[in-house]
Each structure stands twice: as structure tokens, then as C-alpha cells.
From TrEMBL:
Coiled coil region boundaries: none
Protein's name in the database: Chromosome partition protein Smc
Domain Endonuclease GajA/Old nuclease/RecF-like AAA, chain residue ranges per copy: 1-389
UniProt cross-references to InterPro entries, sorted A to Z: AAA_GajA/Old/RecF-like, Bact_Antivir_Def_Nuclease, P-loop_NTPase
Origin organism lineage: unclassified sequences, metagenomes, ecological metagenomes
Pfam families per the UniProt record, alphabetical: AAA_15 (PF13175)
Amino acid sequence: MRIEKIEISNYKSVANSQVLSLHDKVTAVIGKNESGKSNVLDCIGNVSISSSDESYRRKMSQPSRYNLQDDTAVTLIFRIDEEERSKLNVQDKITIIQYRTNDTPFMGRIVQGFGKEYFENPDFGNKLDKIKEILANHFPLQHNLHKQIFNSALSALDDLAVIHNLKWKSQISFLFTLEKQIPNQEDAVLFRQQLEYIQRYSDRYYDIFPDIVYYTEQNLNSQYSFKKDDFDNLRTSHGEMLINFIKAAKFNENLFEEMMLTYDSGRKQDLIDDLKELIDAQINRQFNQFYPQEIVSLVPSVENSSLKFFVKSNSRNITISERSNGLKWYLNLFITLLSKNIQNKNILFVIDEPGVHLHVDAQKELRRLFYELPSNYQILYSTHSPFMISENHISDIKVIQKNQEGITEIVNSVFSENILQTTKKETLSPILKSIGMSQQHVFGAYPGKINVITEGITDSMYLRAMAKNLDENRFVFIPAIGASNIYNLGLILWGWGFKYICLYDFDSAGIREQKKAINKYGLENTISLSNVCDGEDITIEDLIDDADFELVDLKKELVKKSVSKMLEAKKLCHNLSSADVVISELTRNNFTVLFDLMEKSFVKN
């Protein structure tokens, strides 16, 4: 099961109803500082799907100062796959659950979908009616205490079709205790059978629901030193992560204290051996399924009252602090999951600015590992870093912005016209930098290929996409930073022994720099786009038919002037390079002519 969409209304800076669409695997959120990203993540991260209690109502009850209503609402839309739909035997693929702070009692309400359908099953209703009948026959309800207890227990089961919470578990446990008080043995057996059916039936439904984990980065230290007073409050003295580790290993806290403080060397060694066995059984074996990049083991070492942690890999023990930040991040995350006993559940992780203190390479590793997490996990994270953005997953990125009134808005596509023009460049800067960096890192000169230097990144993107569409393998496109830098980049290639040609736009900068290259530097290996198209101010976009821009809801003239030109180019290039998309004849002819001119110029020089 996946969370497909989350709607937030009247929470902090989110005054009006705003919907965030989530992807099956990873969803990244970008936006300027103070745009409301943390508010959105706070509201989502604090949702408690498995238990609706008053603490969550208090966290939600922070209405926007822009909204006159005091009722905050969070609505979650869940989607099941075909296997889950078959397991539940329902027709609907979605269910909608809503939390409202003004509801009394406070709990998630099933608005519509397969949740209602599942619990309105006649078989379930018949079993529930039978339980009520047996209770009515053997426990007269005229006594107020009986009436109050039974009604409370039965109403929890009656409400399963409209209320989403786990309080029914405690009520079923209570009802099971009544079996021994039913004097008729046949009725007692029947009573238990009906309850067991309801328990299994309800468990089947609730087991597939994801938990939401608002993950705060925490680190297991390489070394801990203990004294007697520390164990009065171990969480305060040594932090939450050590407590998580003890829970994850299923090691008794009293035994842990004894292991660290005892002077009996034999007893200490026995406890150390017990801890190592538990770490292997409870942590190491499962972690290597969670983190498939390499086989590693967490290894403890105890000396006197000091505890050290090593990570063993390839028969070598290295302290945690010396391992890669990516591995440490995932080990800490996994230990946190184990401590909550939810490692095998469907989970949505909500993470505000992950890896913000990591090195560039570690951020890239972290981003890559997000996509390699087990299939039962979704990730929702915010970032300002271009290294936490992948140009291959542009559609996974959402934008959060504030309008002129200071109200937070969610935009579910970075290509949307709803992104404010006044702040668009700053808002989208992580994506633009990411695309720019990846283009510069990907393209390099190659011997045996026709190396083409272009004025900029978007020129190379369009040329590369059309080369793929036309099944052209002759070219390598190398972006310069503006027309004035083509010559300098050419000198570098020449120094490396590469042949190349220079491609200039037919605009003022392109005309000026091509003339300079020919007249001042004596270069003959230049081509102008005027050799392909007639007209003035010809750029690479002019080789593409208007109809091809319109296929992806873009306007050529707007793209040429856009502050996020690379982003629009990425969108169009995805279409141009697809074998399933029919490109206009004009576009194909223009690029065929250009590619032929490039080859002739390259061979000639």
C-alpha cells in the first residue's frame, strides 16, 4: 500500500487546502527559505495512522492566522496494488482517511474507498451480529455497568467501517475474557470462533497500512563511557540513539548496566558474548538485506566501563566514525526502525533536510540509496542542495512557495505555470544547478567521435535528444558557458589532441563570437545556425517546430526567455528522445541538415 496524496488545510502557513502528491518511491520538496516546507513536513510527519490520540490533535491544532476557521484537517489518500486488492477482496483501489481537530472523539474517519467496502462485507456483519446475540443471551444489559462495558467494546467493532484506529484490538482482547463467563459450552465455542474471525479479518486490513515515521537524524557514537549515575537516566546521559540500539538488539537494559559496571570479569564476558549474539541475530542479518551494497557487521567491544562500536567489512574492523557517511546514515536509520519494531511494515519516512552536514559525495550516495531502499518504504524529504536532486528524477520533485499574501502553496510539478515568476529562479535553483552540474560531468570529448562545442547546456541537451531520436551515434556535444567561452574550451580540447567543431547561435553574441573566432583566431571549424534556418536571432530552439513544444504544454518564445530554461529543456528533451513520440517532419529535417553540416565541417578540418 502506498500513500498517494496528502491534503492539508488550515495548518500554520498553509491557510487554504493544499494537496501534495507522493511518488511510489521518493518525493523531494524544494523551495525558498521560509516558504513553509518545514510546516508541511511537520504536519505530515506527526500523523499517527496506527493510533489517533490527543497528542496528535494538540500537534495539529495550530490553525493558520490567514484562516478564520479553527478546524485543521489532514486527509490521506491510500492506494493498494492488485495483489493487496485481491487479498482484501475489494473493488476500490483507494481509501480516504481524514483527521479533523474539531472531531470528538478525535480519530481518523474513513471518508470513502475500500476501507468502507471491506468492513461492510456481509460475512463480517453476520459474525458481529452473532457476538451481540450471544452476549445479549448470557449477560443481561439492564445492569448499567454491563451495558457501559459491552456497548463500548461492541461500538469499537461496529465503527470499523467509519473509524480508522487500533482501539478495536484492546476491545477484542476484553471480549475474549468474557468467554469463560458464558455458561453454555456450545455458545462459548461459537463466541470465540466469531471473535477470532473478526480479529483475523481486521488484522488483514490494518497490517498493510503504512506507518509515518518523522525521522530525525541521530548517530550511534563510536565510543561510550559509563559511570553509575548515568543509568539513572541513560537517555539524558548518552542520547536517544543508544537506547534505540539496546532496544534493537533486544538486550535487557538492566543486563546492559550490569555488563558495563560489573567487576566480575567472567560475568562481564558472558554478558558481552550474549550481546554479540543478539546483535548478529537481531541487527546484522537484517541490515544486510536492508543495505545490499556490501556485507557488514556491527561489532561491540567492551573494556572496563567503555563501549566501542566497530563496523566489520572484508575481515577488517573499522570504527563507525571512519566509515562512509552514507553507511552510517543507513545504519542509524535501520537501528531506529528496529527499536520501533516496524522494519517490515510499509513506511513513509518524512525527513527534513537529510544529509545537510554531509560532504557532497556523501549526499549523492544518500540520494542514490533512497531509491535502493526496500520496496515497502516511501521517502518524502526537503532539500536545498543540488546534490540531493537527480536530473533523472525531475518528476519526483515538488515545489513549496509562498504567494504574495504569505500563504504557503504546494505545486506538484516543477514545470507548472503556477510557480511564481518573481521567485522562480531562486525556488528552482537546486534543480537548475543539478542539471547544469550533471551535464558538465557527463559530457567529455571522445576520440573517434565528432566533438561539437555548443554555447551552453541547453543547446547540448537538445542536440543530444535529437541525436538519440534520429539514431545518430557520430557526435559528442560539449557545452561551453556562453558563446565567448567556446574558443577557450576549444583550446583545451586542442591541447588534449582532440578534433572539434564550434556551433554558434545566429544572434548578436553568436555572430560576434564566430567572427572573432574566424578573423582573430583563424578558426575554420565553425558552424552557424543560419546555415540551417532563415531569419534573425536564431537559436537552437528555432530548429524545433512549435507543435513539438506544444506536445508538452510549452511555448517556444516563452522557453527562449525563461529564467528556468534548462528545466523546460529537460522536459522537452525527454519527449524528443522518446521512440514512442512522433516528432514533426520540420524538426527532423532541421536537425538532419545540421548533423550533416557538422560532419562535413569536421571532415574538412
